[in-house]
Amino acid sequence: MYLSRNAVVRKPAIPLPQVNVYPHRSLSIVSARLYPGKSEGAIRESATAFSRKEKAAEDQWARQRDAEKLKHLREALEKHEKSLKDTHEALKDIKENIDNLSEKIKDD
Q1: Are 39 and 45 in contact (CB under 8 A)?
Q2: Residue at 13 is within a domain
Q3: What is the mean pLDDT of each run of 10 residues along the chain (108 residues)?
Q4: Does this model's pTM top 0.70?
Q5: Domain containing 96: what range?
């Protein structure tokens, strides 16, 4: 059926609802299916100068991030060790006070 230029196309009286056929599927699932043989790290696997430079940049970033994490962990460890030392000193003082009080009670 062909429409002429002067033909009037009528809209339906009741608007049709928009239906999403695949509401549970995301783009990442679809894109993974479009390229079944490629991995996400395809740049790293190639042997071009760009890929070697990119790999070096990623490795440098990873080393810097690991160094930052180690620095924060060492600082947290020092903080916890200081807290533990303070707690041991407080416990030692409490034990000394208990011993002194028990001696006073025996003397009376």
Answers
A1: yes
A2: no
A3: 57 58 51 51 68 91 96 96 96 95 85
A4: no
A5: 43-107
Residue at 27 is within a domain: no
C-alpha torsion sign, points 37, 42, 44, 49? positive
DSSP per-residue string spanning 47-95: -SHHHHHHHHHHHHHHHHHHHHHHHHHHHHHHHHHHHHHHHHHHHHHHH
Number of domains in the chain: 1
Query: Would you state the pLDDT for residue 17?
Result: 58
CB distance 98 to 90 below 8 Å: no
Given this model, what pLDDT does residue 50 score?
84
Find out whether 43 and 51 touch, Cβ atoms under 8 Å.
Answer: yes
